[in-house]
Specification:
By secondary structure, this protein is an alpha/beta fold. It is built from 14 helices and 21 strands. Helix 1 packs across helix 4 and helix 1 runs antiparallel to helix 14.
């Protein structure tokens, strides 16, 4: 093997500075890979066929497509480069699917499907989540190969096309083909940094479970003048039920939903960590959420309950009538719960004990969204130390190590199913408008991400060659 670390990093810098990153990302953003549109398999497959497979084959990877066992869902790509069976294997991951474009709501750029640069921002659907992130990692692998001729380790890389709908079929594919996906460590990129300028490691993801609470008292609405004060109002009952789940400060009241005691390594990792979304991010409400925890502890190692939507009657055209029903779409994000398989049964017990037995729990509502279990790697894992050391060498400062990302992803497939440590190195920031109009990435952040990933892949290969 030849070349040197600084030259590999210089190649990574040129990839950003010379416009190749923007060019590649523009082609990928242009593909309308919306997995939330039923039977959009053509666009999902096009992303793999036209973008991912050629890019991986160009750097010496063999590609294998797995048809999705779930009807109407996109395939899964596994790219492999095996240099020596005796070397460790690094498993990478990205998802090429995106949420709905929300075309008519964009105020920046040129809409969701055309990459547009405005100052130091690149606008387009999927830039932050997740097309720019896996594009950066793939390019960093290429920079190391161009400089050294070899990676110095084996690499496997998954690109799935259904993360935004809960990764349907991915578990079944990995379970049936474990040898194909086997690795020594999982290193991938998704989610945001804790601060835009601060490289970050996240070691797992909070779990997420969505459900509806519904109450249906009668057929049809009734005049509020003639019947108000005489018949029960489902919206008021539901509002009181929600208030029994979390109080006026967002503090969870269900004992089984409270965060269990966290390990010393988790607690130590979050000492001094600040949460900042950069320009345009909302201000943190310090009194909201679990008491006694810092903002970082709340979002990276805590549980939170949210009401995502709440309806009764017709909010756009209200009439003077008592509605017959009310519905709330709810979500629990959890770092851990004592018995995660008891989340909804604990809710049922709580509602019944507090006089809300008339409220139904719909575990599979029409607009359920993606649900994932919580899973993570401990901060004192040897691979975590190895990655942390590399990023510190490149960036001349220690990265922030988070026990868990605030969002949710299929992390359990790697830590639990494949049994490997999972380390995420995010290349976005919390103010990126992910899942919203005007989604974007920051060019300076992407340049720094290219530097640290090229250095990381270089260091993994160099260590194995010693």
């Amino acid at each position: 093997m030849s070349g040197d670390r600084l030259s590999a990093i210089a190649r990574a810098q040129h990839y950003i500075d010379d416009g190749l990153f923007e060019s590649e990302l523009a082609q990928r953003v242009a593909i309308k890979s919306e997995s939330q549109i039923p039977n959009n398999v053509g666009e999902l497959r096009a992303y793999l066929d036209s973008q991912m497979i050629p890019a991986f084959e160009q750097i010496g990877f063999n590609c294998k497509l797995f048809d999705n066992p779930v009807a109407g869902c996109g395939p899964v790509l596994l790219a492999r480069r095996i240099e020596d069976e005796r070397l460790p294997t690094v498993l990478g991951y990205g998802h090429g699917d995106v949420i709905l474009g929300q075309d008519d709501q964009w105020q920046k750029g040129e809409g969701p499907w055309q990459l547009k640069r405005e100052q130091n921002r690149l606008y387009g659907r999927g830039t932050a989540d997740n097309k720019a992130q896996h594009t950066i990692n793939m390019a960093a692998l290429r920079c190391v190969l161009e400089e050294r001729g070899l990676l110095g380790f084996n690499a496997r890389f998954i690109i799935e096309m259904g993360e935004e709908t809960g990764s349907p079929g991915l578990r079944e594919i990995i379970t049936r083909n474990k040898r194909d996906f086997a690795a020594d460590v999982f290193i991938a990129s998704d989610g945001p940094r804790v601060m835009p300028e601060q490289p970050t490691l996240t070691l797992g993801s909070r779990g997420a479970i969505n459900f509806d609470l519904a109450i249906n008292l009668r057929d049809g609405a009734h005049h509020s003048g003639n019947w108000g004060g005489l018949i029960a109002d489902p919206a008021i009952i539901l509002a009181n039920a929600l208030a029994s789940i979390a109080n006026e400060k967002g503090q969870i009241q269900i004992k089984d939903w409270l965060t269990p005691e966290r390990s010393k390594a988790v607690q130590a990792a979050l000492v001094g960590v600040e949460v900042s979304g950069g320009d345009g991010a909302p201000e943190i409400d310090p009194e909201w959420g679990a008491p006694g925890l810092t903002p970082a502890e709340k979002v990276y190692s805590g549980n939170s309950f949210a009401v995502l939507a709440l309806t009764s009657g017709n909010p756009d055209k209200p009439v003077n009538a008592i509605s017959p029903s009310a519905r709330a779409h709810c979500q629990l994000r959890y770092f851990a719960v004592p018995e995660s398989d008891r989340i909804l049964s604990a809710l049922r017990d709580h509602l019944d004990q507090n006089g809300f037995d008339m409220i139904e729990i719909d575990a599979n509502p029409k607009h359920n969204g993606a649900s994932f279990p919580a899973a993570r790697t401990e901060p004192d894992d040897p691979w975590v130390e190895r990655v942390k050391k590399s990023l510190q060498q490149t960036n001349q400062s220690a990265p922030v190590v988070l026990p868990s990302m605030g969002g949710s992803i299929c992390n359990d497939l790697f830590t639990d199913l494949l049994g490997v440590p999972a380390i995420w190195v995010p290349h976005s920031y919390t103010g990126c408008s992910q899942h919203a109009p005007d989604e974007h990435v920051l060019l300076p952040l992407c340049r720094n991400a290219m530097e640290i990933m090229a250095g990381l892949y270089w260091d993994i290969g160099k260590a194995e060659a010693v």
